[in-house]
Amino acid sequence: MFHRNRRFVVADIARAGDLLQKFKGPIQTWTLCTGWRYKGWLWLNDSLSENGAQEYAVVKESDMVQWESITVSWASEEFLRAVIQQLDFGRLEGPFYSHITNPIETPEQHGRCHLCM
Asked: How far is CA 95 from CA 31, 41, 59, 98, 117, in A?
């Protein structure tokens, strides 16, 4: 993860298609403090700016270890669907990265930060 001091507001996603829509739908850039929780995995925005390529750290929530880093802007919809399926079936290789300590917040806890102004 590039941003060790960034805090994230994480919203729950119930279906794989909804998560895919976040990355490949009409709105394809998100504030730098955005994250999603899907089936025990966190997708945390690790981008350098909202105007650049959207990079997400994929973190296993139970131990807060980053398993993957994906530039979703450059990834095809098919590739992202395959990664999500690998997560669903516990087949993602890794972990490749270390334990992260970034604060994970609900929208109520997060409020507004300098990244979402």
From this structure: 26, 13, 9, 8, 33
